[in-house]
Design brief:
Elements lengths: L21 E6 L4 H16 L7 E7 L6 H12 L7 H9 L1 E5 L5 H18 L5 E5 L6 H10 L15 E5 L7 H14 L5 E3 L7 H11 L13 E9 L8 H26 L8 H14 L7 H5 E7 L1 E3 L2 E3 L17 E6 L11 E6 L6 E8 L19 E7 L3 E9 L7 E9 H5 L6 H11 L8 H20 L4 E5 L22
Parallel strand pairs: 1-2, 1-4, 2-3, 4-5, 5-6, 7-12, 8-17
Antiparallel strand pairs: 7-13, 8-11, 9-10, 11-12, 13-14, 14-15, 15-16
Helix pairs in contact: 1-2, 1-12, 5-6, 6-13, 8-9, 8-13, 9-13
The protein binds 6-O-phosphono-beta-D-glucopyranose (BG6).
């Protein structure tokens, strides 16, 4: 019996009995994502007794790693959300762990992998149930998928419910534009069935992003307010206080629009704006999300100059520390035009949201880390208390805080106690930490488990990812074609002043 079978502890995650014995194979196992996120997530699943009884883990990468298990143990001890490391749980995980060194283009790599899997499957009883996690650059995905299929490590999907399964999880970025994302989809679908493909966007694994749907569709009182009838505008913010963190070379090629807006921010937008699905089924949910992306009014050509602002951080102070500007970061061109901040004014052309501005912004080196969606309600039709001190100048605002300090707050006016008629805005605030305790599972825990269970609801479908690029591509082209200015903002501020011009008269950007 494995240690994780002996303790009934649960954390509100899906039931382990639905997870069949599985081998998880990570390509790109020598990378940062594996150390910082994937292994800590797997360990925490084990610690929460959520892994199946039979579980094996194989790392694959080019580099030699004679002590893979030791390195992973150190990484888990450092990056796990729960500390200190539980030796018994780790020991059990380590027994089913292996490492295969090899080039992703070399058929010999796949023969070695097949050998390791065969051995582990006998030892651990994982019966050819395999999840392949591709934590690699998008350009490497096709050769890996081909290698796996040619070596028959991935088998064609079967309609028999008892047959073994093989699934492929593809990390972001999924392509670098619409053409490459389409090519990647074509390539994947030439070898695999869509039901075997799990395109990851880790924001979908965040508790608060999922909670957007429970909040909206698990209650009766909010949904009737959730439309143009009551909302004047929506602000969506994904702000970070960190800079490019030594990833200057990567950032020069990608910029924040591709890195965060194309995926994470647009995914939050779909969850926030979608219509209720008919059921909690992967395709029913994703159908509704795709409709939101299709309703996004394109921003093309010269429109980029009116409806978007791109910018770069200059030197400044973040949380008391002096930091350099983007162009002075290592591996960054001193004349770079790569954006580290972007703001956009979006419209959804549909019945629910017609005419409601959606202001979206995302940036590195902003004043603080904060991801949130704020719904600003319409002003009062008649200000009964306009002469009262503090009288109702500000409309109601509902804020869904995705991170940190996860929660939901509703701002409304109230009477200040006393004889007169003074008013003040107050907030009704629900905090996850207070209600459920602070150690919420990491996004990767949920997503790895879902991939093993075969639940694709929180993964991006081919048409979804293409619709996201279809919206982003013309903006990037417009910037190039019209040589859109790259504004500057001080590190530690809330972005460039130029972003204010995107807002309708009277609206201001929130300070989360
Ligand atoms: C990644 C981006 O996808 O998401 C990073 O590549 C970014 O640039 C990160 O910092 C943010 O993730 P989180 O979960 O820390 O908000």
């Amino acid at each position: 019996m494995k240690v994780w079978e002996t303790n009934p502890l649960r954390e509100g995650m899906p039931d382990e009995r639905t997870v069949k014995p599985t081998a998880l194979v990570i390509f790109g196992a020598s990378g940062d994502l594996t150390r910082r996120k994937l292994l800590p997530a797997i360990y925490n699943l084990a610690l929460s007794r959520l892994l199946p009884g039979g579980f094996a883990l194989v790392g694959v990468a080019r580099r030699a790693k004679p002590d893979f298990a030791r390195e992973m143990k150190d990484a888990v001890a450092k990056f796990s959300r729960r500390k200190p490391l539980d030796e018994a749980t780790w020991g059990e995980l380590e027994k089913g762990m292996a490492y295969v060194q090899g080039d992703f283009n070399d058929p010999a790599t796949y023969s070695r992998l097949a050998g390791e899997l065969g051995r582990l499957e006998r030892d651990r009883g994982t019966t050819q149930n395999r999840v392949f996690y591709l934590a690699v650059a998008p350009t490497e995905v096709p050769s890996i998928v081909k290698g796996l299929c040619d070596a028959k490590i991935v088998l064609p999907p079967s309609t028999d419910a008892d047959a073994s399964y093989q699934r492929v999880v593809v990390e972001k970025p999924f392509g670098e534009d619409l053409a490459s994302a389409r090519a990647l989809n074509r390539n994947l679908l030439a070898h695999l069935d869509e039901r075997q493909i799990y395109r990851i966007d880790h924001y979908l694994g965040k508790e608060t992003v999922q909670n957007l749907l429970v909040f909206r569709f698990g209650n009766t009182i909010f949904e009737p307010l959730w439309s143009r009838q009551h909302i004047s505008h929506v602000q969506l913010t994904v702000a970070e206080d960190i800079g490019v963190e030594g990833r200057g070379k990567f950032y020069e090629q990608i910029g924040i629009t591709r890195d965060i807006v194309q995926n994470h921010a647009l995914q939050i937008l779909t969850m926030m704006a979608m219509d209720p699905p008919a059921s909690w089924d992967a395709d029913a949910v994703r159908d509704e999300k795709v409709k939101v992306l299709r309703a996004l009014r394109p921003i093309r050509g010269r429109e980029v100059l009116e409806r978007t602002v791109r910018a770069q951080y200059a030197a400044g102070t973040v949380r008391g520390d002096k930091v350099v500007g983007y162009r002075d970061e290592p591996d960054v061109d001193p004349h770079s035009k790569t954006e580290t901040f972007v703001a956009m004014s979006l419209r959804l052309d549909n019945f629910r949201w017609g005419g409601v501005p959606f202001y979206l912004r995302s940036g590195k080196r902003l004043a603080k880390r904060s991801a949130e969606v704020a719904l600003h309600f319409k002003p009062l039709p008649h200000r009964l208390f306009r002469d009262a001190p503090g009288g109702q100048d500000e409309p109601n605002v509902l804020v869904v805080r995705i991170q940190p300090d996860e929660g939901i707050a509703l701002r409304f006016a109230t009477k200040v106690p006393g004889g007169g008629m003074s008013m003040r805005n107050v907030a009704m605030d629900f905090r996850y930490g207070t209600t459920f305790g602070s150690s919420t599972p990491e996004a990767y825990e949920r997503l790895i488990l879902d991939a093993m269970r075969g639940d694709a609801t929180l993964f991006t479908r081919a048409d979804e990812v293409e619709a996201q690029w279809g919206f982003i591509d013309p903006i990037l082209e417009g910037w190039r074609e019209y040589d859109a200015p790259v504004a500057s903002y001080e590190a530690g501020s809330w972005g460039p002043r130029e972003a204010d011009k995107l807002l309708a008269p009277g609206d201001t950007w929130r300070r989360p």
